[in-house]
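pinging the channel bc i need a second pair of eyes. not urgent but kinda urgent?? the chain im working w is below, pasted from the shared doc
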Amino acid sequence: MENSAIHPAVAPLSYLLGRWRGEGQGGYPTINSFLYGEELLFSHPAPGKPVIAYSQSTWKLHSGEPMHSESGYWRPKPDGSIEVVIAQSTGLAEVLNGTYTAEDKVIKLHSQVVANASEVREISRVFEMVNGELCYVVKMATGVTSLEPHLKAVLKKKWELDQDFQRHGVQESKRQVVLERVSN
């Protein structure tokens, strides 16, 4: 996508646009720790509108079995504030407000509303670019716990994965095996 097609309010976060893949780990005081694969997709479906579409899916690393998915919209504002809505496959919906700094490439979100049938009552998310990788931490509070770390992951942009394969001379057949493992 050309920068000229990006809405001015989205431009400071345009580094997010694209497909990101990687691995993460989760845990919580009330559940066992786990590892997962993940894909995030940020797109700008309506260049005339100040919105980024967001979707996420995760899978078990050892089996490729689907785990979780969510989707929503991010609305950055020129003043550095951002509004986000996310609906999760578990029936949970979030409305988050926060801030972003384009220079540092950091986005901090905190729930204003969490609607669900479970006991989740608060969520915070922090996304940060570190050495070209998208890192995030999700914290969660329930009826029996305070805001505690729940998820963290490190993701690379898909085209960067392709460039890594080329740079290291990975054969196409091996590249496909690795990408299938990451995408499953």
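so The first strand starts at residue 18 and ends at 28. and The radius of gyration is 17 Å. — does that match what u expected or am i reading it wrong
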